[in-house]
Write a structure and sequence with these properties.
Order of helices and strands of chain B: EEEEEEEEEEEE
Largest interface: A-B, 26 and 28 residues
Strand content of chain A: over 45%
Radius of gyration of chain A: 13 Å
Number of helices of chain B: 0
Order of helices and strands of chain A: EEEEEEEEEEE
Number of strands of chain A: 11
Largest sheet of chain A: 6 strands, mixed
Strand order of the largest sheet of chain B: 6-5-4-10-11
Oligomer: heterodimer
Shape of chain A: globular
Shape of chain B: globular
Strand content of chain B: over 45%
Helix content of chain A: under 10%
Protein backbone atom coordinates (compact mmCIF):
# COMPACT_ATOMS: atom_id res chain seq x y z
CA UNK A 1 0.00 0.00 0.00
CA UNK A 2 1.41 3.39 -0.97
CA UNK A 3 1.96 5.96 1.76
CA UNK A 4 0.12 8.50 -0.41
CA UNK A 5 -2.98 7.42 -2.29
CA UNK A 6 -4.70 9.46 -4.98
CA UNK A 7 -8.06 9.04 -6.66
CA UNK A 8 -9.13 8.86 -9.32
CA UNK A 9 -6.14 7.75 -11.40
CA UNK A 10 -7.75 9.03 -14.58
CA UNK A 11 -10.41 11.67 -15.01
CA UNK A 12 -12.12 13.01 -18.10
CA UNK A 13 -14.28 16.10 -17.83
CA UNK A 14 -16.12 18.49 -20.11
CA UNK A 15 -15.05 22.10 -20.22
CA UNK A 16 -16.72 24.08 -17.47
CA UNK A 17 -17.18 21.17 -15.07
CA UNK A 18 -16.19 21.23 -11.40
CA UNK A 19 -13.38 18.75 -10.74
CA UNK A 20 -12.23 17.13 -7.51
CA UNK A 21 -9.08 15.08 -7.01
CA UNK A 22 -8.54 13.34 -3.70
CA UNK A 23 -5.43 12.45 -1.74
CA UNK A 24 -5.10 10.42 1.44
CA UNK A 25 -2.03 9.61 3.49
CA UNK A 26 -1.32 7.13 6.22
CA UNK A 27 0.67 8.89 8.95
CA UNK A 28 1.05 12.40 10.32
CA UNK A 29 2.70 14.87 8.01
CA UNK A 30 4.40 18.26 8.10
CA UNK A 31 2.89 19.54 4.89
CA UNK A 32 1.03 18.40 1.80
CA UNK A 33 1.85 19.63 -1.69
CA UNK A 34 -0.21 19.67 -4.86
CA UNK A 35 1.84 19.64 -8.04
CA UNK A 36 0.95 19.92 -11.72
CA UNK A 37 2.76 18.45 -14.70
CA UNK A 38 1.67 19.02 -18.29
CA UNK A 39 2.53 16.29 -20.81
CA UNK A 40 6.24 16.43 -21.54
CA UNK A 41 6.62 19.35 -19.18
CA UNK A 42 8.21 20.10 -15.86
CA UNK A 43 6.66 20.01 -12.41
CA UNK A 44 4.96 23.10 -11.05
CA UNK A 45 4.05 23.58 -7.42
CA UNK A 46 0.40 24.63 -7.04
CA UNK A 47 -0.11 24.60 -3.28
CA UNK A 48 1.61 23.73 -0.05
CA UNK A 49 -0.67 23.41 2.95
CA UNK A 50 -0.57 22.05 6.46
CA UNK A 51 -4.07 23.05 7.53
CA UNK A 52 -7.28 24.58 6.23
CA UNK A 53 -7.79 25.78 2.71
CA UNK A 54 -5.96 27.74 0.02
CA UNK A 55 -7.28 29.29 -3.18
CA UNK A 56 -5.48 30.48 -6.29
CA UNK A 57 -7.61 31.54 -9.20
CA UNK A 58 -9.85 28.60 -10.14
CA UNK A 59 -7.91 26.17 -7.96
CA UNK A 60 -8.80 25.37 -4.37
CA UNK A 61 -6.96 22.99 -2.06
CA UNK A 62 -8.23 21.76 1.28
CA UNK A 63 -6.78 19.51 3.93
CA UNK A 64 -8.32 17.68 6.88
CA UNK A 65 -5.51 16.73 9.23
CA UNK A 66 -7.66 14.53 11.47
CA UNK A 67 -8.92 12.47 8.52
CA UNK A 68 -5.52 12.54 6.76
CA UNK A 69 -7.17 13.68 3.56
CA UNK A 70 -6.78 16.51 1.06
CA UNK A 71 -8.73 17.55 -2.01
CA UNK A 72 -7.84 19.66 -5.02
CA UNK A 73 -10.78 21.35 -6.71
CA UNK A 74 -10.80 23.00 -10.11
CA UNK A 75 -13.75 25.24 -10.83
CA UNK A 76 -14.90 26.04 -14.39
CA UNK A 77 -12.40 23.60 -15.87
CA UNK A 78 -10.68 24.44 -19.15
CA UNK A 79 -8.77 22.30 -21.66
CA UNK A 80 -5.53 23.96 -20.54
CA UNK A 81 -6.08 22.33 -17.13
CA UNK A 82 -5.37 18.96 -18.79
CA UNK A 83 -2.33 17.64 -16.95
CA UNK A 84 -1.19 15.19 -14.31
CA UNK A 85 -1.90 16.36 -10.76
CA UNK A 86 0.34 14.92 -8.09
CA UNK A 87 -0.11 14.93 -4.34
CA UNK A 88 3.04 14.77 -2.21
CA UNK A 89 3.79 14.95 1.51
CA UNK A 90 6.70 15.78 3.76
CA UNK A 91 7.12 14.27 7.19
CA UNK A 92 9.21 17.00 8.74
CA UNK A 93 12.40 16.59 10.63
CA UNK A 94 15.43 18.15 9.04
CA UNK A 95 14.50 17.27 5.47
CA UNK A 96 12.36 18.39 2.55
CA UNK A 97 12.03 14.83 1.23
CA UNK A 98 8.76 14.49 -0.70
CA UNK A 99 6.78 11.26 -0.86
CA UNK A 100 4.59 11.26 -3.94
CA UNK A 101 1.25 9.83 -4.91
CA UNK A 102 0.89 8.15 -8.28
CA UNK A 103 -0.83 11.12 -9.86
CA UNK A 104 -4.19 11.82 -11.47
CA UNK A 105 -4.30 12.25 -15.24
CA UNK A 106 -6.93 14.86 -16.05
CA UNK A 107 -8.25 15.45 -19.55
CA UNK A 108 -10.66 18.34 -20.05
CA UNK A 109 -12.49 18.16 -23.35
CA UNK A 110 -13.79 21.29 -25.10
CA UNK B 1 13.91 36.37 -9.81
CA UNK B 2 15.28 33.57 -11.98
CA UNK B 3 13.80 30.12 -11.43
CA UNK B 4 15.55 26.83 -10.88
CA UNK B 5 17.75 25.95 -13.83
CA UNK B 6 19.06 22.56 -14.82
CA UNK B 7 21.70 21.61 -17.34
CA UNK B 8 21.78 19.86 -19.63
CA UNK B 9 18.10 19.55 -20.49
CA UNK B 10 18.56 16.42 -22.59
CA UNK B 11 21.27 13.81 -22.56
CA UNK B 12 21.89 10.54 -24.35
CA UNK B 13 24.45 8.17 -22.89
CA UNK B 14 25.53 4.58 -23.40
CA UNK B 15 25.35 1.81 -20.81
CA UNK B 16 28.41 1.79 -18.59
CA UNK B 17 29.15 5.49 -18.99
CA UNK B 18 28.82 8.05 -16.24
CA UNK B 19 26.90 11.31 -16.24
CA UNK B 20 26.82 14.54 -14.23
CA UNK B 21 23.71 16.70 -13.99
CA UNK B 22 23.63 20.23 -12.62
CA UNK B 23 20.97 22.17 -10.71
CA UNK B 24 21.15 25.88 -9.91
CA UNK B 25 18.61 26.87 -7.26
CA UNK B 26 16.72 30.11 -6.92
CA UNK B 27 18.98 32.81 -5.54
CA UNK B 28 19.08 32.60 -1.74
CA UNK B 29 17.76 29.06 -1.55
CA UNK B 30 20.01 26.69 0.35
CA UNK B 31 18.16 23.39 -0.02
CA UNK B 32 18.33 21.36 -3.21
CA UNK B 33 16.52 18.05 -3.60
CA UNK B 34 16.88 15.62 -6.48
CA UNK B 35 14.18 13.29 -7.79
CA UNK B 36 13.83 10.62 -10.44
CA UNK B 37 10.68 10.24 -12.53
CA UNK B 38 10.02 7.11 -14.58
CA UNK B 39 6.79 5.80 -16.14
CA UNK B 40 6.94 2.67 -14.00
CA UNK B 41 7.95 4.04 -10.59
CA UNK B 42 6.67 7.60 -10.81
CA UNK B 43 8.50 10.24 -8.80
CA UNK B 44 11.04 9.08 -6.24
CA UNK B 45 13.32 11.02 -3.90
CA UNK B 46 17.06 10.67 -4.55
CA UNK B 47 18.71 12.99 -2.03
CA UNK B 48 18.64 16.44 -0.47
CA UNK B 49 21.48 18.84 0.19
CA UNK B 50 21.35 21.82 2.51
CA UNK B 51 24.28 24.17 3.03
CA UNK B 52 26.65 21.68 1.39
CA UNK B 53 25.56 18.78 3.62
CA UNK B 54 23.52 15.78 2.55
CA UNK B 55 20.37 15.85 4.67
CA UNK B 56 18.67 12.72 3.43
CA UNK B 57 19.13 9.98 0.87
CA UNK B 58 16.55 7.86 -0.90
CA UNK B 59 16.66 4.16 -1.61
CA UNK B 60 18.97 4.20 -4.63
CA UNK B 61 22.22 2.31 -5.23
CA UNK B 62 25.57 3.88 -4.52
CA UNK B 63 26.01 4.61 -8.23
CA UNK B 64 23.89 7.69 -7.56
CA UNK B 65 25.77 10.42 -5.73
CA UNK B 66 25.60 14.14 -5.35
CA UNK B 67 27.20 17.20 -3.87
CA UNK B 68 26.46 20.83 -3.24
CA UNK B 69 28.77 23.77 -3.62
CA UNK B 70 29.12 26.87 -1.48
CA UNK B 71 26.92 28.85 -3.91
CA UNK B 72 24.17 26.20 -3.38
CA UNK B 73 24.47 24.81 -6.89
CA UNK B 74 24.20 21.05 -6.81
CA UNK B 75 25.38 18.26 -9.02
CA UNK B 76 24.32 14.65 -9.16
CA UNK B 77 26.41 11.93 -10.68
CA UNK B 78 25.38 8.52 -11.92
CA UNK B 79 28.17 6.07 -12.63
CA UNK B 80 28.04 2.84 -14.65
CA UNK B 81 24.77 3.77 -16.30
CA UNK B 82 22.08 1.13 -16.78
CA UNK B 83 19.13 1.14 -19.16
CA UNK B 84 16.81 1.55 -16.17
CA UNK B 85 18.42 4.87 -15.33
CA UNK B 86 16.61 6.43 -18.29
CA UNK B 87 14.34 8.97 -16.65
CA UNK B 88 13.55 12.60 -16.04
CA UNK B 89 15.63 14.02 -13.20
CA UNK B 90 14.03 17.15 -11.76
CA UNK B 91 15.57 19.04 -8.89
CA UNK B 92 13.77 21.36 -6.49
CA UNK B 93 15.00 24.19 -4.32
CA UNK B 94 13.73 25.87 -1.19
CA UNK B 95 15.05 28.32 1.38
CA UNK B 96 14.75 26.08 4.42
CA UNK B 97 15.02 22.36 5.05
CA UNK B 98 12.40 20.94 7.37
CA UNK B 99 9.43 19.94 5.30
CA UNK B 100 7.41 23.14 5.72
CA UNK B 101 8.82 25.21 2.90
CA UNK B 102 7.50 25.43 -0.65
CA UNK B 103 9.70 23.67 -3.16
CA UNK B 104 10.34 25.12 -6.62
CA UNK B 105 11.07 22.63 -9.36
CA UNK B 106 13.42 22.94 -12.28
CA UNK B 107 12.46 21.69 -15.76
CA UNK B 108 14.43 18.49 -15.28
CA UNK B 109 17.14 16.73 -17.25
CA UNK B 110 15.86 13.97 -19.50
CA UNK B 111 18.44 11.18 -19.56
CA UNK B 112 18.26 8.42 -22.12
CA UNK B 113 20.58 5.43 -21.71
CA UNK B 114 21.07 3.24 -24.78
Amino acid sequence: KNEVEQSPQNLTAQEGEFITINCSYSVGISALHWLQQHPGGGIVSLFMLSSGKKKHGRLIATINIQEKHSSLHITASHPRDSAVYICAVTYGGATNKLIFGTGTLLAVQP
Amino acid sequence: KAGVTQTPRYLIKTRGQQVTLSCSPISGHRSVSWYQQTPGQGLQFLFEYFSETQRNKGNFPGRFSGRQFSNSRSEMNVSTLELGDSALYPCASSFYSGGRDEQYFGPGTRLTVT
